[in-house]
Each structure stands twice: as structure tokens, then as C-alpha cells.
From TrEMBL:
Keywords: Lyase. Its EC number is 4.1.3.27. One of its GO terms (molecular function) is 4-amino-4-deoxychorismate synthase activity. This is Para-aminobenzoate synthase, subunit I. InterPro entries: ADC_synthase (IPR005801), Anth_synth_I-like (IPR019999), Anth_synth_I_N (IPR006805), Chorismate_C (IPR015890). Signal peptide: none annotated. The keyword Phosphoprotein does not apply. GO terms for biological process: L-tryptophan biosynthetic process. PANTHER family: AMINOBENZOATE/ANTHRANILATE SYNTHASE, AMINODEOXYCHORISMATE SYNTHASE COMPONENT 1. Residues 202-455 form the Chorismate-utilising enzyme C-terminal domain.
């Protein structure tokens, strides 16, 4: 059913002169099912490469234990653990050596929804699954473009796939690279949005924070990540929204995934997992302060974050949790903290970041790594299992891709996955966008509520055409739209 990859045809590619990169080239693909864009921006050390892929030779998706693999040989559906099927697919396609074009020359591009936690641990599922979308989709592109932003170089890659018992072939009715280059000089398309609503009203969010602090006082947990989801009607071009966000606030892990019946837009700055051979890395983010309106105010917020004992303790707890997670798949004595409490600046917020690394055991696969670490500790809490139970109790709807992961699973023992924060889903003319923060015993209810608004402000301003300030966002969240079923 899966077949094998028999060749990679690689050629250099010249992009049109002027500003922009793959975000412009992808314009002609934005409405193509299973076209995927992983877009890097900014100047951080994990923002070197951008990748786009389309024309998949294989698509795997799962909902619960119903797994479907679509390929040239047909469609195969079965009831199984989705991680087991993903491991089978990757093992069948795996290629030897390093990727000819770093960091990625062939493999799957897609997402893992947060609810895949239920296949890894015995957990409750009381939150409402109001969208009913797949828990994972991985598209394996036949055509790829990889851009090295630092070196100013670009390559096109054709993945030659041979189905079982058949000859390798190309895709059908797929956009050609020449057509994409011709469309890359474009203007922004239009869209219209409706009234913003939240799954939490303000008072219920404050009560949820208070309940979390009580769980901490009773000794259940040390920390929980608590989120609220905003929704608004949307008509028009969803990809234009990504372009506006990217130009305003570039970050290392932007993504646009056209999943056929729905689209995912992510503006994440947090790396979940990076693997290159035996090297494994995770970069948790904990600790947030808003950017100031003036340079002096900005400096005050920065110093406040760097000096905060609360934020230091929160990040240190998650670093310890992730060291333990990596220890399940790494060789003894190889796990270390490469960097701790690095301050990173973005348009609306400052964040504290740590880098935890390890040496992977030679027998471990991509799926072994995911089983040991998913979902990321920075967006669950500590201890992880009890934190996930409390999240399900307090949040009214499932998270889906939010706090899951987006990125690529390479066929050359390489992967790069982000934590899907600052991430929106467009489905049935509605956009859903969640924001959250880590709650510890010293948290103040009102401050935690305000933090969620700071984190979402770039999107709120754009959909409000510049007029969506914090007061109007609070008014939009004044009533809760969804109750538990």
C-alpha cells in the first residue's frame, strides 16, 4: 500500500527578485488540498529554512482509531492505533544517510492534534469535540521547495515514489512551478470577519484559574497550562491573514496547511522537537511580559521578566519535565540544558526560552520519540498526566491542533516540529484561535487573563483592521458561547 521512494531529483531554483520568499511562491497553492507551507521569519537561530510541499503521493489521516491511508494504489482504512500506523508508514519509506538538501528533502508534512494524548495515556475526555476534525494529517509531497534564508539559496525537489507493484509516476492536475512563479507577484485578497466570541467569559476564566491554584495548594500539580478559545465568522481569503500576520510579526515556525476541508494557520515561535540523526532538541517557552509602549516602559517589562522568581520557577519545572521525557529515548548521560532563560523579543511580548538536548538511542524511531514526549510539557503542566486531566476538566472544548504540533517528519532520521501555539483553524466559515498561559500557585487571576489577551493581540488587531484593542477583546469575551454537553 505504501510503496517506496526510489529517487530524489534536485535542482537549484531562483526566486523572483525583491522582498518575500516562499510565502509569495505559495500564493498559487493556497487553495490546493494538501499543499503545505512551513515558513520561517525573524533572525533567531531556528529560523533559517522555509519549506513548501504539494502533490502528495500519500496522505495519512486519523480520527480516534479510524485511520486512512490514501495513495496511488487506492485508499485503505482500518481501525488501529494511529501512532502504530504512522510508524509503519515511515519505516516503509525511510531513506539512508543525511538529507541531500538540509534540513528536509523528503517525508511527511502535517500536524498532530493535542487529543492524540488519549492514545498515549488513559485520560478522561469530557471536553466537547465541537469541530470533529481529524487528529492527525500527514501529507507526503511529491514536489518540494526548500529555501535557505541565511544563504539566499533555494532548491526544488521531486520525490520519485514507486507504489507497490507499479511504476513511479507523477501527480495529476497539480500546479506547476512555472505557474507558481508567475503568480508570486500578487496583491493581498480580501476577507471579512464577524463578531469575536470566546468559549470562556471573563468570570469563568478567573474561576478556572482559581480552581487551578486550589489544585496546586492541595498538592495535585505544580503547574497547569490553561487556555481559552476565541471564534469569529470568516469570509474570504484565509491565506491573506497569514501574510498580514507574517509581515507584522515574523516568527520561526509559521505554517499554513491546506487540509482539504479545513485550513490551519500557525504563527508559533516555540520548537517542540528537532532531530538530526542522534541529536534531539526541545525548546520550551515559559514566562511572558507585554512589550511596552515606550522604550523605557519596554525596558522595565524586560527587566521584570528576567528578574521574576515566579517565571524562573515555572520554566525550571518544565525543563525538568522535558529532561525526564527525553530520558525515555536518549542515552544515559547525554541530556543537558544547552541554554536557560534566554530572553526572546516579539512584537507584543517577551518570552523566556530554554534549550534542552540529548543523544538519541540508535534504535529509536520518530514515533518512539513522539510516544515519549507528546504533547509538549510547556503546554500541559507538571506533572504532565494530572495536568492534562485538570485541563480536560476546566476547558469547555477540545484543543485540537492548538497545543498539538506542526512540522515535518523526514525520511532521513530528521524531524522538526513546533508547539502549535498562536494557531488558528478555519472550518465551515468560522475561525477558531486559542491562547493560554501557565498557572502556578503565585499566579494572579486577572493577570493570567490579561496575558492571554496580550498573546492574541497581533491577530486581534488585524481582524479588527487595527481597531481591536484590549477593551474590545474583553467585551467580545463577555459571554461564553459553548457549554459542556
Amino acid at each position: 500500500m505504501v510503496g517506496r521512494v526510489v529517487d530524489l531529483i534536485i535542482r537549484p531554483l531562483s526566486l523572483p527578485a525583491g522582498p518575500g520568499g516562499l510565502e509569495n511562491l505559495f500564493w498559487g497553492l493556497r487553495r490546493t488540498p494538501y499543499a503545505m507551507l512551513l515558513l520561517s521569519g525573524g533572525s533567531l537561530d531556528c529560523s533559517r529554512y522555509s519549506i513548501m510541499g504539494w502533490d502528495p503521493y500519500l496522505v495519512m489521516q486519523a480520527k480516534g482509531r479510524q485511520v486512512t491511508v490514501q495513495a496511488a494504489a487506492g485508499v485503505q482504512s482500518r481501525e488501529a492505533d494511529p501512532f502504530t500506523v504512522l510508524a509503519e508508514v515511515l519505516a516503509s519509506l525511510e531513506l539512508p544517510g543525511e538529507p541531500p538538501i538540509p534540513p528536509f528533502s523528503a517525508g511527511g508534512v502535517g500536524f498532530l492534534a493535542y487529543e492524540l494524548k488519549n492514545h498515549l495515556e488513559r485520560l478522561p475526555q469530557d471536553a466537547v469535540d465541537d469541530l470533529g476534525l481529524p487528529d492527525m494529517i500527514w501529507a507526503f509531497p511529491r514536489r518540494l521547495v526548500v529555501q535557505d534564508r541565511w544563504a539566499g539559496r533555494c532548491w526544488q525537489i521531486q520525490v520519485v515514489h514507486e507504489p507497490p507493484g507499479g511504476r513511479a509516476g507523477g501527480g495529476r492536475d497539480q500546479p506547476e512551478l512555472a505557474d507558481l512563479l508567475a503568480q508570486s507577484d500578487h496583491g493581498l485578497a480580501s476577507y471579512a470577519v464577524g463578531r469575536l466570541r470566546s468559549t470562556f467569559d471573563r468570570e469563568r476564566y478567573l474561576q478556572a484559574v482559581a480552581r487551578t491554584r486550589e489544585y496546586i495548594r492541595q498538592g495535585h500539580i505544580y503547574q497547569v497550562n490553561l487556555s481559552q478559545r476565541f471564534s469569529f465568522p470568516f469570509q474570504g481569503d484565509f491565506y491573506t491573514l497569514l501574510l498580514q500576520l507574517f509581515h507584522r510579526n515574523p516568527a520561526p515556525f509559521y505554517a499554513y496547511l491546506n487540509c482539504g476541508g479545513f485550513q490551519i494557520l500557525s504563527t508559533s515561535m516555540e520548537r517542540f522537537l528537532h532531530r538530526q540523526g542522534e541529536y534531539l532538541e526541545t525548546r520550551p517557552i515559559k514566562g511572558t511580559r507585554p512589550r511596552g509602549a515606550t522604550p523605557s516602559e519596554d525596558a522595565i517589562f524586560r527587566r521584570e521578566l528576567e528578574a521574576s522568581l515566579k517565571e524562573d520557577a515555572e520554566l525550571s519545572m518544565i525543563v525538568d519535565l522535558l529532561r525526564n521525557d527525553l530520558g525515555r529515548v536518549c542515552c544515559g548521560g547525554t541530556i543537558g540544558v544547552k541554554e536557560h532563560k534566554r530572553l526572546e523579543a516579539y512584537e507584543n511580548v517577551y518570552h523566556l526560552v530554554s534549550i534542552v538536548t540529548g543523544g538519541l538511542r540508535p534504535d529509536c524511531s520518530h514515533v518512539d520519540i513522539l510516544r515519549a514526549t507528546f504533547p509538549g510539557g510547556s503546554i500541559t503542566g507538571c506533572p504532565k498526566i494530572r495536568a492534562m486531566e485538570i485541563i480536560d476538566e476546566l476547558e469547555p472544548v477540545v484543543r485540537h491542533v492548538y497545543c498539538g504540533s506542526i512540522g515535518y517528519l523526514g525520511l532521513h532520521r530528521n524531524l522538526d516540529l513546533s508547539i502549535a501555539i498562536r494557531t488558528a483553524i478555519r472550518y465551515q466559515d468560522q475561525v477558531h484561535f486559542a491562547v493560554g498561559g501557565g498557572i502556578v500557585y503565585d499566579s494572579e487571576e486577572e493577570a493570567e487573563y490579561e496575558e492571554t489577551l496580550h498573546k492574541g493581540m497581533t491577530l486581534f488587531k488585524i481582524i479588527g483592521q487595527g481597531g481591536m484593542d484590549k477593551d474590545s477583546v474583553k467585551a467580545a469575551a463577555a459571554t461564553s458561547r459553548l457549554k459542556r454537553g
